[in-house]
Amino acid sequence: MASSCVLLLGIIMVLVVAEAKTPPGIAKNPSHATCKIKKYKHCYNLVHVCPKFCPNGCTVECASCKPICTCDKPGAVCQDPRFVGGDGITFYFHGKKDGNFCLVSDPNIHINAHFIGRRNPNMNRDFTWVQSIAILFNNHQIFIGAQKTATWNDYIDRLALNFDGEPLALQQSEGAIWKSNTSPRVVITRAAETNYVTVEIEGRARITAKVVPITEEDSRIHNYGITKEDCFAHLDLGFKLMSLSDQVSGVLGQTYRPDYVSRVNIKAKMPIMGGDKEFKTTSLFVPDCSVSRFAGTDDGLFIRSEANMEGSELPGLSCASGIDGQGVVCKR
Hints:
With 332 residues, this protein is mainly beta. It has two domains: 25-72, no CATH class; 73-298, no CATH class. Helices cover 9% and strands 33% of the residues. It has three helices and 21 strands. A hairpin with a 2-residue loop joins β10 (126-137) and β11. The model is unreliable at 4-29 and 298-332 (pLDDT under 50).
């Protein structure tokens, strides 16, 4: 009897060690989620099992205390890129690789996205993914980006964060928080130890951003042609937009207008939203798409430090600097 107990204990210890030492490159199991908003006391910190049809994990809707697929909620921008509009209609907007496009534009907030991708020789479009976003409000800017990565490892943080041109050093632990001393206040919280944050801009927006790779299985199924040199790490995003005007625009923003009528063919297998030209911007940090509604700042300037963006794999700004050194100034 004693020897049996020792044997059982040994097996348990081996299993624990094996689980703790997950080999690099093996993804963590995204099958569980918890509510992290303390005001929902009935739900806070309760562990939920994600539905089986959520390939990229889930989040918990704290008010109802139910798990919801991360990429199936209104305001989601995931994968290639697949949008779920404010009207609940799902569509795709491919844009072009190495291009910048306006996702949301309203008088008090503007959000651009930088697309990376690969040319598909058998189609008349690129495979594209959102590599980074810039959020402009008042005279402030927030940058969230996925750093270029060859071999993916869930335990290595590949998330780049920047506020007003300065990189943010956010402690690598779940629940770690950074707060601005500006108005409106910005609160950035790690939703996991690595690669997953929530960004709250007081009275404007709540954004979730998760860095994810293109897996070998994804590449095989969709014929992306991903190589071992670059797994095309990109962002899966979720937007909750507040205090929007009736004139809000942008690829995603327009779907929140009360008079908006979707122009995509919802009966198609892949409903595609066109409009590359009307949503294109000259830079990630410039709100100059033709449908821009952004009121800008007091001085109309946005400043980006190239040095602070090192490693984010962004192309150079196309606007003129007008100054010497590392700084770049772009006028609307």
